[in-house]
Amino acid sequence: MKKATSRDVAKLAGVSQTTVSFILNSTPGVSFSEETRRRVHEAAKQLNYVPNSFAKGLKTNESKLIGLLVPSMVNPFYPMLTQRIENYSALKGYNVLLCCTERLPEREVDYLNLLAEKLVDGIIYTFTPHYLKNAVRLSRQIPIVLIGEKEEEISLSTLSLNGFKCGALLAQHLLELGHRSIAYVMSPVKSVSYTRQRRLDGIKSKIQEFGLPEESLKVYTARPVSSDASDGLFEIDAGYQGAEYLLKNTDVTAIIGVNDMVAVGIVSCILNDGHYKVPDDISVCGFDNTFLSEMFRPKITTIDYCSPYLCKFAVDMLVESGVGEEGNVLKLENEPHLVVRSSTGPVKARSLRPDALKAVF
Amino acid sequence: MKKATSRDVAKLAGVSQTTVSFILNSTPGVSFSEETRRRVHEAAKQLNYVPNSFAKGLKTNESKLIGLLVPSMVNPFYPMLTQRIENYSALKGYNVLLCCTERLPEREVDYLNLLAEKLVDGIIYTFTPHYLKNAVRLSRQIPIVLIGEKEEEISLSTLSLNGFKCGALLAQHLLELGHRSIAYVMSPVKSVSYTRQRRLDGIKSKIQEFGLPEESLKVYTARPVSSDASDGLFEIDAGYQGAEYLLKNTDVTAIIGVNDMVAVGIVSCILNDGHYKVPDDISVCGFDNTFLSEMFRPKITTIDYCSPYLCKFAVDMLVESGVGEEGNVLKLENEPHLVVRSSTGPVKARSLRPDALKAVF
DNA sequence: TTGTAGGCGTTATCAG
DNA sequence: CTGATAACGCCTACAA
Hints:
Chain A is an alpha/beta fold. Chain A folds into three domains: 6-46, no CATH class; 65-161 and 306-336, Response regulator (Rossmann fold, 3-Layer(aba) Sandwich), CATH 3.40.50; 163-304 and 340-360, Response regulator (Rossmann fold, 3-Layer(aba) Sandwich), CATH 3.40.50.2300. Chain A has 13 helices and twelve strands. The longest helix of chain A is centred in the C-terminal third of the chain and has 17 residues, at 233-249. At the A-B interface, helix 4, helix 5, strand 2, helix 6 and helix 11 of A face helix 4, helix 5, strand 2, helix 6 and helix 11 of B. Chain B binds a DNA duplex through residues 5-7, 15-19, 21-22, 25, 27, 30-33, 36, 51-61.
């Protein structure tokens, strides 16, 4: 079945092609007789007419496409963002061109070129670009919005996740519960580059604010695993590893995972260890408020980003506000908030486990 | 910065626009002097020339776009497929237009129209279409590949997940471990329409094959929850609910979740219940081999679909084989296999819990 | 209220 | 080997 063109419709309806265009687009400032319109619509339906978006784009320079760059699909945080962005975009008449960089810098730049080529009307980054200059350069042609940490130096419109505040929020929660020996567990360096640091900074700032010594905070960085990292297990492993180490060698009463996945690993380790209860003996929390944090019992205390609004804003900035026009750079601060669940509770003197004693003496 | 056209390049290089096109596309059957080619490439680079894909598409009728329809992003199975399809497509020079239907039939048909409009070169469905006729009709214009249950009546190219075999595989595993009272837990009807049934059929067939009475299999369908179903918790809840009921009211020694999410809910319930151990007292398994099944200890026995190959095939069918041409319909059967982890083990007489006694007498 | 004509940036045919 | 020139399908002055 050959595709019908607007000419075909015109012919069938017995009008000119222009008329078809006017009527089908309900172009403002023209009016037609009821009869003509009926005939055109009729003909269009009959021929199953669909306007050719290439031709349209060629004329209008709009693709109604938004490029979405995500680092990975394993941490459910990104699928969540993706789904929300996709849905809201669709509502606005835009489609999403998905690009998973797998955190590979070279992929990122390839995709950037590709998106430019495909003439997307806007680009959403869900992480901090590796090739900043490329992104900034491109942003003069195509509006770009960044969802991530705010970096003042970058002249890109940003929807800031405010990792610092997130860390502070969580730390404050734990400190108020009386915890004085806290740990922060990060997955191997490669994965969560910048956010992790901001979150850590936030935690540290609260520790200081409470007048506690630096040693009150232990930072555990998991060693990289050789296995295929694309399945996300390395995040969980990191949590498991970290908890294992911390239970044995420290007296921490609260552990913060760098994200919900890591937090799940931590809880899993503690549960399986069997010596301690969460939160009675040890409190655990994470970041991102993905469904993972609500999956197991106890449900995990975490930080929420109001991602529905976040995603909505990101799209709106692209399609409504004049982001990108004349170097117009917008920086919005997202207001994260604490979601207290049952994995955190008041501190209690933790009895050391038998094998921990060995380690101490 | 205005976008450069091939004409601009031609002017700068001092050749005709045609020459530019030939050289930049290395069109077969033409040859140019080394000097000319150098000049053209030089000029292109200098002007930062990017061919306009609207114009190109208008001419070639190829968008290098693949439409991907997924029901949701909450069950990690779909993000996993998405990522793999995206990556492999990118390798093949295609981009992915993502469409999340949220299992809403009306969304599906809207997206279908949209994809047709955007002139994607192919469409991948990761579920069974609600509007079959629409899909079939469209498949005469745009190649469509279905990843899902094979339905003989549908004249759409299909990559079959073979739910029947999956169910049989899992059931056989449990039966061989000696389990004689097995349960199957499904999330509320709305969500996983057809696959669940095929899986159940597979389980039943094995029960029969082993000469066991029908009652050896209990089927539990979770009641729908009123809360927002978009966060995926309803799947976990279903498992939790199911396990809760089954522990109290039946003597099952093995529980199969309709997917990994449900299985996680089941394990979580049993762990929290505290009366039973997995797999010592009760075996649990799921389907899909998402990272969820490996997340917690014990890791969950599940079914794997070799999704990397699956995704690769789906894309290849679209871009290589002549799927869609002259009604060419391909049906491929995927070979699922059992992934045995530590959540399943030999049956052991299960001691009834105190409150279960009440229920029995 | 309707039709004519030109052009968007490519690709591709066909002479030179 | 290279360069006019004609589509591709749509939008949009401008003319009628």
